[in-house]
Amino acid sequence: MKEQIKIQKTPFILLGFFIALWMIGLAVGEPTRVLEQAKSICLACIGIG
Amino acid sequence: MQTIRKWVQTVWIFLINGYWAFPFTRNLYQGPLKVICSPGLNCYSCPASTTYCPLGSLQQLLGGIRYSLQTGHFYVGTFVVGWMGILGATFGRFICGWACPFGLFQELLHKIPSKKYSVPKVLRWGKYLFLLVFVIILPLVVVDQFGLGAPWFCKYVCPAGSLEAGIPMVLLMPDLRSTLGMLYINKMTILIGFTIWSVLATRPFCRTTCPLGAFYALFNRFSLIQLQLDKDACTNCKACHKVCPVEIRFNETPGSSECINCMRCASDACSFDAIHIAIAGHRLGGVKEKSTVVPS
């Protein structure tokens, strides 16, 4: 007798899709832009500009 | 379990706000860690913040999409949405219940003794509207003469930004005080409103307004790690209804997008071991594992 555990596939499909998106962002150099934004003071967040 | 959760929430606050030199530098952390996505709502203009806010970054990228494309860059938000999606597809709203600083802030406020009220169910749709309209559509569509959109949610709504950046940055940088106006008053009024509401109801911001919670909510039913109901073990005693802070009936709607996976139902209510964590449908710990036996 052999036990067969039912594994959900949807989370892995979703993960694969978002990892692909993340890697596309990495390939086009988006982290540099994100870092630039995150390093500067966001006046809108503070409630000024 | 709830004590462990409080500790995990506290550890997360310090992990994503680990820059404690700011009282001396009087500025934000500007190191390379800021390329890492904060899982919960945490303003990247908080002086202690060591990560970026996915909502703030996404709005900034969408607002500057025309300029990016014109200058030959493809900064369309895939890196940020990718991060958010990886987190959402893995944890769903466990992030809301276990790793969000603004969620913990509301929970602590709710401990203040007062008469408690429920949140009208219809208001839960508000967070999806804020995600669609304030985070995506308005920054994309409403642009200035240079073709740049504004981060509408950060600018006009976000009480986490007001609390974590608005107050400390104004205290740290006296020069900013002369620039305060109606926008600041509007944001502070919203923060005060949610502060009072949090005393009276559990997590009102998460349930009615948070666009990040709305994004993670889309994954709650499909995430890799999720809270599941063992229908065979459930006796329909409804004990889980009474303890749920976000007023869902877990045994009737397991995988509800409103569930923040705080696990109070599993640890404080269910006596029949009917609610458990599952990873890809596989019960964590292997107890009462449901399996199909097939001949070899």
Query: Using DSSP, what is the number of strands of chain B?
Result: 4
Structural class, from helix and strand content of chain A? Answer: mainly alpha
As a whole number of angstroms, the C-alpha radius of gyration of chain B is 21 Å
The shape of chain B is: globular
- What oligomeric state is this? heterodimer
Percent of residues in β-strands of chain B = 5-15%
Instruction: Indicate the percent of residues in helices of chain A.
Output: 55-70%
Could you state the order of secondary-structure elements of chain A as H and E? EHHH
Please give the number of β-strands of chain A: 1
DSSP helix fraction of chain B: 40-55%
Q: Roughly how many Å apart are the termini of chain A?
A: 68 Å
Largest interchain contact: A-B, 42 and 67 residues
Low-confidence stretches of chain B: 287-296
Mean pLDDT value of chain A: 88
Percent range for β-strand residues of chain A: 5-15%
Number of helices, counting only DSSP H or I runs of 4 residues or more of chain B: 15
Rg over C-alpha atoms of chain A, rounded to the nearest angstrom: 20 Å
Shape of chain A: elongated
Pick out the low-confidence regions of chain A. Answer: none
Structure description:
Chain A has 49 residues and is mainly alpha-helical. Chain A has helices at 10-27, 30-39, 43-46, and one strand spanning 2-4. Chain A is elongated. With 296 residues, chain B is mainly alpha-helical. Chain B folds into two domains: 55-217, no CATH class; 225-283, Alpha-Beta Plaits. Helices cover 48% and strands 5% of the residues of chain B. Chain B has helices at residues 2-16, 22-25, 54-63, 65-70, 78-91, 94-98, 101-110, 126-141, 152-156, 159-172, 182-200, 204-208, 211-217, 239-243, 264-269, and strands spanning 225-229, 275-279, 282-283, 292-294. A three-stranded antiparallel sheet of chain B has the order 1-2-3. In chain B, helix 7 packs across helix 11 (182-200) and helix 8 packs across helix 13. The longest helix of chain B is centred in the middle third of the chain and has 19 residues, at 182-200. Chain B is globular, with a radius of gyration of 21 Å. Residues 287-296 of chain B have low confidence and may be disordered. The interface between A and B is large, with 42 and 67 residues.
